[in-house]
Amino acid sequence: MIGAVDIGGTKIAVGIVDDTGNVLARKQAPTDPNRYSEGIDLVARMLRETAQQANTQLTGIGIGSTGPVDPMKGEFGDVDFLPGWRGKSPVRDLAQIFNLRVALENDGDAAALAEAGWGAGRNRSRLIYITVGTGIGGGIILDGQLYRGVDGAHPEVGHQVIDPNGPLCSCGFRGCWESLAAGPAMVTWMETHAPENYAHKEGISAKKICELAQQADATALLAVEHEAFYLGLGLANLINLFTPDAIVLSGSVMKSANLFLDRIKSVIRQGCRFVPAEKTELTLASLGDDTNLIGAARVWHYRFGKAS
Ligand SMILES: [Zn+2]
Predict the structure, then answer these.
(1) Nearest-angstrom CA–CA distance, 123 and 299
(2) CA angle 291, 175, 241 (to 5 degrees)
(3) How many whole angstroms from 154 Cα to the centroid of ligand 1?
(4) pLDDT of the chain along its 308 residues, tens only?
(5) 173: burial class by Cβ within 10 Å (0-12, 13-18, 19+)?
(6) How much distance in Å is there from the Cα of 176 to the middle of ligand 1?
(7) How far is the CA of 26 from the centre of ligand 1 (A)?
(8) How far apart are the CA of 230 and the centre of ligand 1, in A?
(9) How many Å lie between the centroid of ligand 1 and the Cα of residue 159?
(10) CA-CA distance, 269 to 164, in Å (whole number)?
(11) Who's near 171: CB < 8 A, 6+ residues apart?
C-alpha cells in the first residue's frame, strides 16, 4: 500500500493506492504556497488519516508535484506557484517522519508512469502522455523508461513554439502550444471572435464552449475547430519527433475529445508524411480524475518496486 501525494499549485491530494493502482482512500486540502513546514505536516496528517480510513499500513510514499523538481535529490526546484517550497526536500522529510522510502517526480511524469503501468498506455513501449487543461503538460516514456533530460530535467512539451507571432507565454516565448491550445486559449478565442451579440459570451469557460459545441452551437464549433487545429499541430510535432506507439490524451479539455479528434487526425495526416503517423495510436487516458494520485503511487513502484 503506497501513500500517494499529488502536490499542485492550489491543492494537495493524498491517497492510499494498492499495488494494482486502485485508490482506497483519498483526502485533499488547499496548498499554502508560502509555508512549507505546515504543508509537510498537513501531508503527514492526511497520510495517517487516509491509511487509517483504508485500514492499512503504508509501505512507501510516492509524490508527484507540479513544476520543476529534482527527482534524484528529491527536492523542489524553482516552482513558480510555490515560492516557499523552493529547495525543500519532501522526500527527506517524509522519509524521516514515516521511516519509509519516498520517491518524487514531476506530476506529468508521474501521470505518464501511471497510464503506462496501469492505464491506457499499458504494453506500449514508446508512449507520450499529454494533459490539456489550464495548461499543457506531459511525460515521455521510451522503451518502458521515463525519459529524463540533463540533470534529470523534465521536458516541457507545452512550451514548444507553434506560432512565433502568437500570444506571449510565461516562459518568455510567443505562441507556445500551451498558450494556443490549453483551455484558457479557447476562452480567449471566444472573447475576441464571438459576435458582439453572442448570448454565451459573459463568463464563458472551456467546458461551456465544449458543451455548446456538443449542442451544435455554430460559434462554439468554430472555437472547437480552432482548438483542434492547434492541438493537432502540437501532437503532429511530437509524432514527427518521436514516432511513438501511442499518445495518451488526458486533462479537462480532453473530456470532450470527441469534438477534436477528427480534426486532430486530419492535421497529423497533412503534416506527418515522412513517418508512419497512422501507426501512432491516439488514445484517451483511462485512469480518470485520479490519474495524478495514482501516478504519485506509481512513482514509488517505478523507483523501488519490481514494476518498471
Ligand atoms: Zn511557453
Answers:
(1) 18
(2) 65
(3) 14
(4) 999 999 988 899 999 999 999 999 999 999 888 889 999 999 999 999 999 999 999 999 999 998 889 999 999 988 777 888 889 999 999 999 999 999 999 999 999 999 999 999 898 999 999 999 999 999 999 988 999 999 888 999 999 999 999 999 989 999 999 999 999 999 999 999 999 899 998 899 999 999 999 999 999 999 999 999 999 999 999 999 999 999 999 999 999 999 999 999 999 999 999 999 999 999 999 998 899 999 999 999 999 986 54
(5) middle
(6) 5
(7) 33
(8) 14
(9) 4
(10) 23
(11) 156, 159
Q: Give the whole-angstrom CA distance, residue 93 versus residue 88.
A: 9
- How far is it, in rounded angstroms, from Cα 131 to Cα 285? 9
**Cα 68 to averaged position of ligand 1 atoms, centre (Å):** 14
d(CA 185, CA 306): 41
With the C-alpha atoms ordered 76, 79, 81, 84, is the resulting torsion angle positive or negative? positive
| Distance from Cα 172 to the centre of ligand 1, integer Å | 6
For residue 35, give the DSSP letter: -
**Among candidate residues 35, 33, 26, the one with its CA nearest the CA of residue 11:** 33
297 SS3 class: helix
Q: Which three cell numbers stand for residue 61?
A: 510514499
Expressed in angstroms and rounded, the spacing between residue 295 Cα and the centre of ligand 1 is 24
Other CB atoms within a 10 A radius of the CB of residue 99 amount to: 8
Q: Which three cell numbers stand for residue 175?
A: 505562441
Q: How far is the CA of 132 from the centre of ligand 1 (A)?
A: 14
